[in-house]
Design goal:
It contains 17 helices and 21 strands. With 448 residues, the protein is α+β, with helices and mostly antiparallel strands. Bound molecules: guanosine-5'-monophosphate, iron/sulfur cluster and magnesium ion. Pathway: Purine metabolism; IMP biosynthesis via de novo pathway; N(1)-(5-phospho-D-ribosyl)glycinamide from 5-phospho-alpha-D-ribose 1-diphosphate: step 1/2.
Length: 448
């Protein structure tokens, strides 16, 4: 998912809107914004893309100088309007809207416990737990209730809370999902503040990146002036390595590293680890482009855009059934026949999940006359599902968890198949040796 919070800024809702638009890749199922007029919160949310949910007239209704927004990508809950965010509620202290990127690992226990005690839920979202935890806390002030509530939850969360007067942003102690702080200049010269999942949002709305919200940190935005920082958990950073592989936009700066640079390095590492003779290197657009550039540069084999992408088709894995996913690959990708006919191809993609994309690609390349197709993946085999906010299917559907390398290669019908090693992936980030990441989908070692 994508989250954004805007505080004390001119046209806050429109800043939130453009931010969500720039982060559409993080979730395409539903979108929503809550704004605060200072007196009340206004919420508009629906299923669909950002542009479909908010026409001009709708944005105008979202008055006020603060707003939170969300793009949904279902990892917990169901694909229904009830599961769109922000989650909004009225309670004894007033009104609150919450947006959440991540996935709470103890949501089920908390929910059962709350239901036992008489709570009623509207949605299947783990985020709804937070409303109840905040409403039930015995503390007097909202800030203390939020702190209370987040001490009861576990798992991955980058959270933003908006009340009528204040905004709070929190990253879980491991900092699984990204969250960055920026500021934006108002027409009177004062500054408003922003938090967003990715820094590409700041670029679009003309905000200035300040720093990342730290794992275990809470920022409180109140009246004028800079946000106040509270360390509410001991830091144990384990940011998600898959943000670099696939999830984040290449023009974003995530966990202190530019995503494009990291992806290019991944391609270079892959060329060093898994060399092979071929006539050209072609990416699976868009997710394989940066790594293919790196691979071509390192190997000296020419880079070509051998597959053209139709940009009016979104991310294919979001499709609910296997059949519709297969059709969508065809709709989305088409090879350039004249270019690849009779050629030995190295095809670069970022990851193999179910194997659907890779197999379809190999098939369309062969049908277009490719002589050899060598599939190279710029991450290790995905062998375990993610419980921290990325929608990988369960283990039974992960092809690399159920087949050997040779079997997977045969399944996708390629001449050869190879993956980047986990060490190679780490090297690509060029981080400090002691820097730890979550890499559970690649090594099965879960942190929470
Ligand atoms: P496959 O056809 O192997 O299931 O899909 C793999 C492709 O889907 C990758 O090339 C990648 O672009 C994209 N993908 C990236 N992240 C995810 C994810 O979290 N879940 C799924 N299913 N696919 C993803
Ligand atoms: Fe990221 Fe994989 Fe960890 Fe999930 S399991 S947080 S996708 S590294
Ligand atoms: Mg892809």
């Amino acid at each position: 998912c994508a989250v954004v919070g805007v505080y004390n800024a001119d046209t806050a809702a429109s800043v939130a809107y453009y931010s969500l638009f720039s982060m559409q890749h993080r979730g395409q199922e539903a979108s929503g914004i809550s704004s605060s007029t200072g007196e009340k919160l206004i919420t508009i949310k629906d299923r669909g893309l950002v542009t479909a949910v908010f026409g001009d007239d709708k944005l105008k209704k979202l008055k006020g100088r603060s707003a939170v927004g969300h793009n949904r990508y279902s990892t917990a809950g169901e694909d229904s309007i009830l599961d769109a965010q922000p989650v909004f509620a009225r309670y004894d202290l007033g009104e609150i809207a919450i947006v959440h990127n991540g996935n709470l690992t103890n949501a089920k226990q908390i929910r059962e416990d709350l239901i036992q005690k008489g709570a009623i839920f509207q949605s299947f979202m783990d985020t709804e737990n937070l409303i109840h935890l905040i409403a039930k806390s015995q503390k007097e002030k909202l800030i203390d209730r939020i702190i209370d509530a987040v001490h009861k939850i576990e798992g991955a969360y980058s959270l933003i809370f908006l009340s009528r007067k204040k905004m709070f942003a929190i990253r879980d102690p491991h900092g699984f999902r990204p969250l960055s702080l920026g500021r934006i200049k108002n027409s009177d010269g004062s500054f408003g503040y922003m938090v967003a999942s990715e820094t590409c949002a700041f670029d679009l709305v003309g905000a200035e990146y300040i720093r990342d919200v730290e794992p275990g940190e809470m920022l409180v935005f109140e009246a004028e002036g800079e946000p106040r920082s509270y360390k509410i958990f001991e830091k144990q950073p384990r940011p998600c390595i898959f943000e670099f592989v696939y999830f984040a936009r290449p023009d974003s700066r995530v966990f202190g590293h530019n995503v494009y640079e990291v992806r290019k390095n991944m391609g270079q590492e892959l060329a060093r680890e898994k060399p092979i003779e071929a006539d050209m290197v072609i990416p699976v657009p868009d997710s394989g482009v940066a790594a293919a550039i790196g691979y071509a540069r390192e190997s000296g084999i020419p880079f070509e855009l051998g597959i053209v992408r139709n940009h009016y088709v979104g991310r294919t894995f979001i499709e609910p059934t296997q059949q519709s996913r297969e059709l969508k690959v065809k709709l989305k990708l088409n090879p350039i026949k004249e270019l690849i006919q009779g050629k030995r191809l190295i095809v670069i993609d970022d990851s193999i999940v179910r194997g659907t994309t890779s197999r379809q690609i190999v098939r369309i390349l062969r049908a277009a006359g490719a002589k050899e197709v060598h599939m190279k993946i710029s991450s290790p085999p995905t062998i375990s599902p993610c419980y921290y906010g990325v929608d990988t299917p369960d283990k039974s559907q992960l092809i690399c968890a159920n087949m050997t390398l040779e079997e997977t290669c045969r399944f996708i019908e390629a001449d050869s198949l190879s993956f980047l090693s986990l060490e190679g992936l780490r090297r690509s980030i060029q981080c400090d040796e002691r820097e730890l990441f979550c890499q559970a989908c690649f090594d099965g070692k879960y942190i929470v």
